[in-house]
Amino acid sequence: MPLVKLFSQVDVYDGWPCAATLRYAQTLIQQQPGASLQVLEYALRQAQGNWLEYPYVWWVLIGRKRVMPLFKDANQHSFIELNQQRHLVHSLRDTQGLVGARTLDSTSTPKVPRVGYFICWENEDKIMNLLGKDLVIKCWSDA
Fold first, then answer.
1. What pLDDT, in 10s, does the model give residues 57-104?
2. Buried b (16+ CB within 10 A) or exposed e, 15-29
3. CA 10/CA 26 separation, integer angstroms
4. Which residues lie below 8 Å from residue 130, measured CB to CB, with a gap of 6+?
5. SS3 for 5-51, per residue?
6. CB–CB of 114/92 below 8 Å?
7. Domain residue spans of the chain
8. pTM above 0.90, yes or no
């Protein structure tokens, strides 16, 4: 499908799903198909500490970002072009509290940026392979 260029420069981060929280969120959505993101976020925060370790559906790697053009297709999906391939990206503003921050720097407490987009890779291992390093990502549950 043809793409329309929306912005010349947006911040794009690497991200991946939080598997346990994603499974629980999918169950909640099946039970309440019309629930808003705010309702989902509230339910996940209520479950945190009981059977969920983190209330985040996605993790975003902070401290490493790309600045690149953003495109939309005819279905209104947001994409970037990376290594001559199109990748679906998600808005950090739209996903808000469903995204947690992780960092490669163990000395700082990362915060999820208010604006920007993230590519949702399959899992954390995929990001480590992309970075080409054997790194430990520090998690901050209060980010």
1. 999 998 889 999 999 988 889 999 988 889 999 999 999 889 999 887
2. bbbbeebeebbeeee
3. 29
4. 14, 121
5. EEEEEEEEEEEEECHHHHHHHHHHHHHCCCCCHHHHHHHHHHHECCC
6. yes
7. 1-18+56-143, 19-55
8. no
